[in-house]
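Lay summary. Proteins are chains of building blocks that fold into shapes, and those shapes determine what they do. In this project we predict the shape from the chain. Here is one chain we studied, written as its sequence of building blocks.
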Amino acid sequence: MVKLRAARPGEAEELGALVLRSKAYWGYDAEFLASCAPELRIRDGEVAERRIVVAEDAADGRVLGLASLEGGPPVARLGLLFVEPRAIGRGVGRRLYRDALRRAAGLGFRRMLIDADPHAAGFYRAMGALGPQGPGAAGDEGEPPAGLVRFEAAPAALAAWAQAWTGGGPAVHVGNVAEYNAQFGDASLDPVQRAAHHYACLAAFYSPSPGALVLPAAVPPGWIPRVGRLLEWEGVEVYDGLAQGGSGLPAGAGLSDAVRARPALAGRLGAAGLPLVPWGLTAGFARLSGRPWRPRELRYESKSAAHGLFGRILAGGGHPRILLPGQWPVPTRRAAARLLAARAAAGASTVLKSEHGVGGSGTTVVSPERVRAAGGARALLRALPRGPLLVEEYVAGPADPQEPRDLTYDGFVDGAGRVHEVGGAVMDVAGAGYRGATVGPAVVPAWAEKPLLAFGEAVGRELSAAGYRGWFDVDFVADGSGRLAPTETNLRLTGPSIAFMVAARLDALRGAGHFVRIADRVELGARLPDAALDELCEVLERGCAELGAVFLPAIPTGAFDPAPWLGVLVAAYSREALDAAEALVRAEALAVGAAFADDQRAGSPVSSKSKGEGGFRVT
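And here is the predicted shape, written in a compact code that computers can read:
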């Protein structure tokens, strides 16, 4: 185990000798090392001034490496980062680099320059530093010294909203997606909720730093170690398979009750003293967490109630670039058919909605052409899920297909009722079906950012006044005239919220400015054995890294579904790298699926840990 401490003046000579040994590791001859010695020397009086930190072996106290953080705000320099040759490859350099970046953020540095030995270029790229920049790339700081290459990072503390969400520390993540959906009993939801159990894998990302994951279905054992290595999580406990067949729970029991039915597990989670973070609030989670259960907190999950809330906000003025589509509840299918037929005859498109529904389930866009093709409004309605419907005006989008059409605001109301803005995102929606979202610098168009954030905050204030405490979002569609139409609010975590969590973690680890995209469904074409899924993730991790991107498998259990798919997250410092990474992921996934398709048509078996029973492990 490695621990870090401030260097002491009396060990300057010893540290200088370590620096030269580390430099020699790359095969430089004695003459070259002698020429470097004056520049690499550490003097007693410089230890504090250069902010030198050492890494030492926690068992025997031997020094394993050091790093210096030099200069004054706004620009810092990573003057030294050297590791004892025998300790190279043990993660010492990573610990020292992350610590330097964290210290730089705490001291108010906006940039950190690194003039690196060319042999260390791969290390700094893996750490997320931007570069390398060689001679001729000088800015105000001048060119890098001869023989070195320049990298740069943007130190960033964990986002203020993330600090407020869970106190900035680890949390217990409860993947109660199916439990949340079930309480609404909407006809548009899948009664089996298999997709919801897959989506519960996103519990890994309910905060930037999980301490434990509580999951309804079993997950591949190598998944969290892979994600944890990339996001530098430590000691994450995984409790999975808790709500699968054979669990002995009564019909209708959810994940929270499954935990309560295991007193040892419930006690262990409670004894950890960590906040419990669910996908959404339920009666079962209230029993598990000991919080009061107030069902009316969730009344604005209803699409008609949310529409009424939006109307009341707009009636107060102050949101000139927000428009509210007309919406009409229809108690019967006959009434819906009449209204839909009248709108189609007038040449108007219509949105049909169920009161509840997730990911676009229960929402259908109906054009006049579609009504005619179906043989009339009544025939079209017969093909839709049963249950009450809402009829809503269709908002035509921007003429330019490159302009974002579907946007969302994310925020949360803390325990004291304060609203915290997380930000805006652009969603990927096909028809009425949500497929993913992108967050990052300026992803929301400049014209839309202020009205989106202002209206989202106004919704948050109303939710707070109504007693709601927790995460929420507000979804919008953009019209062709520079306006936004709010369509619903979700009183739970969402796909975009997961992207925000990962962006906050990566910004704090690697430097500010990450774009993060969550793609809910990357098609595979064939079910994959565990080993093949792990190999695919390894290929995607390496391939994305070569593009300057980070690949994270987000929903691995979909790979074992009868219609197999994979949920993924990709992150990068540019939109171009992000797009390239997503394209690589989709192409590789289809190629691997094609390789297994013939075997599966021939009847070869596919095994999966996702079929197993619950377990516990620490990664």
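What the prediction tells us: Residues 134-138, 606-614 have pLDDT under 50 and may be disordered.
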